[in-house]
């Protein structure tokens, strides 16, 4: 059985689908802090199989221990964490407490119960303000906000444990910018309140929930002046986890791997692609730069292909189309 902490969330739910379709038994541990129980119904509808569920907070040592007693867990995919950059600046203790505590609690249970395979959700945010792009795994790291530091510290904790425990295996996945949704439009990203991220904001403008998009800065040192990112289809991200689990099960030690496409697109590239693919106008206004944003961030995805045999397959048009199909499904 594969345990997905935070498995009802955006990336976790897509990964649960891919795992089930690849023949794995899936156990989701989630407290539905930023997700909904109906996600389990959707996963069942897509795959024909309902994942096992433990509705717990993975900071709860006793409940996590009992879960590891109850199930025969072979590998853990640890998604459970808070993820809003701005909120982490306002409430750093909340972020350090939760995002480090969940990891340490899960890793202690793994050690106690002899579970040696861990896949961890890290982020390209650990590259801080990059000196050059594309970003390669060995490049210097450093962060600009508490959320980023929790990822940085978590990576260090995992590296240290793998160093100390000869049987331990971990793949640390640095996600770039996951967007889009499952082709069924039954699962996708569902932010609470005003979206922080670009694509959910655009889909809410498209559906009339918000009047226009604010483009945060048009004076960056990029081809059109707007920020450049490596947007990657969430189903590709999910498939990257399957490759990572398979790798972890047959190797020892810790590896850090970028999950990106290697393509950089600007904010205006995304707006134009969304408009063209979906035939909907996205009104936008140029707004001041957002604090903490960088000009460009995109991956060198070579290591993922060499080590895991994984490569992103979906293009930007598919990301825009699938994001919109999902939004239409939840706002109809
Ligand atoms: N942007 C806008 N308007 C918006 C939202 C975003 O112009 O309303 C711009 C941003 O300025 C940036 C780009 O769109 O240039 C992407 O912004 P997102 O918020 O979608 O994504 P970020 O790259 O800022 O952040 C993402 C994740 C973080 C992660 C970071 C680094 O949300 O969790 O990538 O990998 F830390």
Task: Characterize the structure shown.
The two termini are 36 Å apart. The chain is built from eleven helices and 14 strands. The chain is an alpha/beta fold. The strands form four sheets. Strands 3-2-1-4-5-6-11 form a seven-stranded parallel sheet, with helices on both faces. The chain is 42% helix and 17% strand. Helix 6 (146-164) links the parallel strand 5 and strand 6. Bound molecules: uridine-5'-diphosphate-4-deoxy-4-fluoro-alpha-D-galactose. Uridine-5'-diphosphate-4-deoxy-4-fluoro-alpha-D-galactose binds next to helix 7 and strand 8.
In short:
By secondary structure, this protein is of the alpha/beta class. The chain has helices at residues 10-21, 38-47, 61-70, 85-90, 92-113, 146-164, 198-206, 234-249, 267-278, 302-308, 316-331, and strands at residues 2-5, 26-29, 52-54, 75-78, 117-123, 169-175, 177-179, 213-216, 228-229, 231-233, 253-259, 265-266, 284-287, 296-297.
Order of helices and strands: EHEHEHEHHEHEEHEEEHEEHEEHH
Q: Rg from C-alpha positions?
A: 19 Å
Shape: globular
Distance between the termini: 36 Å
Strand order of the largest sheet: 3-2-1-4-5-6-11
Major sheet summary line: 7 strands, parallel
Annotation, overall tally of beta strands: 14
User: Which band does the percent of strand residues land in?
Assistant: 15-25%
Uncertain segments are none
Give me the secondary-structure topology:
Elements: E1 2-5, H1 10-21, E2 26-29, H2 38-47, E3 52-54, H3 61-70, E4 75-78, H4 85-90, H5 92-113, E5 117-123, H6 146-164, E6 169-175, E7 177-179, H7 198-206, E8 213-216, E9 228-229, E10 231-233, H8 234-249, E11 253-259, E12 265-266, H9 267-278, E13 284-287, E14 296-297, H10 302-308, H11 316-331
Helix pairs in contact: 1-2, 1-8, 3-5, 5-6, 7-11, 9-11
Bound molecules: uridine-5'-diphosphate-4-deoxy-4-fluoro-alpha-D-galactose.
